[in-house]
Here is the input.
Amino acid sequence: MVYLLYGNENTMIKNRIKKIRKELFNGEEENIVNFDLDKDSIGNLIDEMNQMFIYGSAKLIIADNANFFVSDIKSRKNDQIFNELLSAIENLDENTHLIFVVHGSKISLKNAIYSKILKDGKVLEFKDIQKSDWPIYAGQFFKKRNISISQDALNELIKRANNDLSVFNNEASKLILYKINNIELADVEALVPQNLEDDVFKIMNSLNNGEKKEALKVYYDLRVKNIEPVTLINLFSSSILFMLNVKNLLLNNYKVDEIAKITGSSAGRIYITQKNVKNYKAEFFIDKLTKLAELDKDIKHSRIDRFVGFERFLIEY
Here is the structure.
């Protein structure tokens, strides 16, 4: 069997590979050969596929970063290496199984090897979990394990995971180990680290829109949660660097989708950032970075109270 696993949810891809391994070997010694096609040649992969099956119940070949699936290699029929790969797939021993992995959501539907796997193998896409689907996924996670969790605890856990499946799974598993059952909001607040990036993003949006009262309100909430100004300085610096990067890309006529791809951010975040930076010159953000660096130095040398200093930075922004 030949599989093509692709998508942005790497945790789901890893879990599916684990499931395939379990089905193939069922507790027996695993015969697995791994390739990273960013480093290993397709020729070496073909040689492994063409080797005679010798021992065990099965052999599994995993070809990670199979990025040739994003292009239309049908237009490259005369390219010998891809003809050889297609031939190796067609003649793969029935006890040898192959998994291609692509870490991305775009696959060329005209790709000849994709078409072959779609016809005779399995193509599985692992999409990002949409915001509206998170309560369903999170609820099922605990239900499958017969674990009780209150709704407010579940909502807070989802919020702190920040749409990152790997973070959610790790933190949810940690909660189960700690509490075993009947997980409450207090357990999540005590054990799961807060996602501060969203709060910092809210403060920066408010400041750039001239809404200092709203920015200070979020900051005071963070004070209550004992978030240190030095931590916020680092996050603010990263956020301002991000805005400066977006500003420069906009000045070079890049579009929202292109900037999202370059920065690894969502188009929605780039759209909001674009609105926030359009009325400011690049020098404005450089000045704020300089002031944050000076504030960080003053705090660490005890020249200023850390809370007073950071609040002053927000007021004078």
